Amino acid sequence: MAEVSSTIDALLHENREFPPPPDFAREAVANDPGIYDRAAKDPEAFWAGMAKELHWFKPWDKVLQWDPPFAQWFVGGKLNVSYNCLDRHLDGPRRNKAALIWEGEPGDWKVYTYWDLHREVCRFANALKSLGVEKGDRITIYLPMIPELPIAMLACARIGAPHSVIFGGFSAESIRGRINDCESKLIITADGGYRRGNVVPLKRNVDEALEETPTIEKVVVVRRTGTADDLMQSGRDIWWHDAVEGQSAKCDAEPMDSEDMLYLLYTSGTTGKPKGIVHTTGGYLVGVYTTSKYVFDLKEDDVYWCTADIGWVTGHSYIVYGPLANGATSVMYEGTPDHPDRDRFWAVVEKYGCTILYTAPTAIRTFMKWGEEYPERRDLSTLRLLGTVGEPINPEAWIWYWQNIGQGRCPVVDTWWQTETGMILVTPLPGLTTLKPGSATKPFPGITADVVDENGIPVAPGQGGLLVLTKPWPAMLRTIYGDPDRYIEQYWSRFPNLYFTGDGCKKDQDGYLWLLGRVDDVINVAAHRISTMEVESALVDHHAVVEAASIGRSDDIKGQAVVAFVTLKDTVTPSDELKVELKKHVTQKIGAIARPDDIFFTAELPKTRSGKIMRRLLRDIAEGRAIGDTTTLADSSVIQTLKEKYGEETEG
Ligand code: PRX
Fold this sequence. Notes:
about 650 residues, alpha/beta, GMP Synthetase, Chain A, domain 3, seven-stranded mixed beta sheet, 29 strands, about 30% helix
């Protein structure tokens, strides 16, 4: 251990570098450094070259149509994502290759070959059609991590019905908001899913959500846990197994326009209402296909495991669409890493011989806390490449991952991207890039990113600022569903013609990018996005609350934790019970990921003269820092009182 900590110490102070292991570099899919220059010289030709590796019913007329800030890629082209992920692999040896290896939390498991997956997708696509689903209809999916989830997505893609997948941890109210925003016609759910040995009652949440969703006509229910047999409403609800019964195993893939919507995915922004991020067909597929291939160095015999939930964008792009478009074997696991024991992830790696593992820094920090004994119990010798995503990784966690999981042999790709970007944008290429722990390194070939100051001027090497993207990229969001103005305002109004990521970033002397976290009112909890406003609206919805402010406080494991400052009605007595009740209320309104770790009662919140809550000062208080500039406060005594009170409560 002493040796490890001295290595870490050295790293933090000496800025150690990790060049690609020579054997890895020799065999790497991307092993020619010229890829960067070629792509930079003519990005459109680079992306067109990648697009040609996919199947098109009709080729495109134009690679890029850029009417800032609206982009169209592969204009005039026709293709189908499900065809590219399945049919394209059926003629050759991949036909009988494992497409999906799935493991349920209780230990049940199943392998789908490409042939199997194609059959099940076709059968379900036909089932959807027989339930009245037509091209263009929006379909909501609220499923646990079971095979029916990617099958449903691919079936939707096959018939041209955009899906909106909702993470299984979201509440009934969150489901309702998302269904109503996109006027979804049908929802696919399960009776329940397994999580840490318990059943998550998905169907019950859906039933509650559907009390006020006028557009939903049908509910398809997968029978997973056997816990909703008495909840089926006749005429509206239909079991998945009944819906696919007797359906043909052939279903022609609908030729889609390159710019037709593939899916919608709701994510938190800086306001209380989640935004429906719109991803389209051609550019998105080219983006996730290319990055999966080069970043994860996919070879024919790899067993690739991304531990994300498909309810988030990482699962969409790098469990389902990217790997399957490459004809890879993608592993999917239903439950938590500590069930039945803390070695579950390593048991999965050992059992299926995973060669590539892609996970989040928050998970790595949790494994660090649990200790090395758990990975040591299992054979991890098949692993050859590791990845991280979702939040900045601290060098200490990077080194731990590299040493204890990669056993010093596996490059670690720290990949930066967002729901909006659809694809990885800043990342090492494992056979080419010298790694620096804690840095996502450089933009992917064909991507141009920069760090700018408040005025949009690029900063000098060694300086920090805001990360922006200076040119359109194939998988970029096209708009916010139903709200193009918000799309412009949110991403393109801060600097003219630059996409504003919302992330702080430092550029070092070698041009490496070091992501520093969000600079807006988005909190990143365990690699999941929550907006301060969402938490605040959930709190003020409670009858005891007058006003609330929430912030992200640095957290050793989760990156950030939600902390809320709450002003109660005069008639309400503050109590610990009330804190518990308020936390429960937020969980009910949004989901457990938004639950505040701590709640503080305060008679007043620090505000500017124009009434804006100064969350920055609340963060200073919560993190025990010296209070920053308070000159714009309407009443500076508020912050002093709050600080004293906070100190007393945390000491107590
Ligand atoms: O702040 C950045 C952080 O996650 C945000 C995007 O969150 P989301 O849309 O939920 O997508 C997460 C998975 C792609 C970004 O604005 N983030 C993501 N990856 C990294 C990261 N921060 C630092 N390093 C990363 N590798």
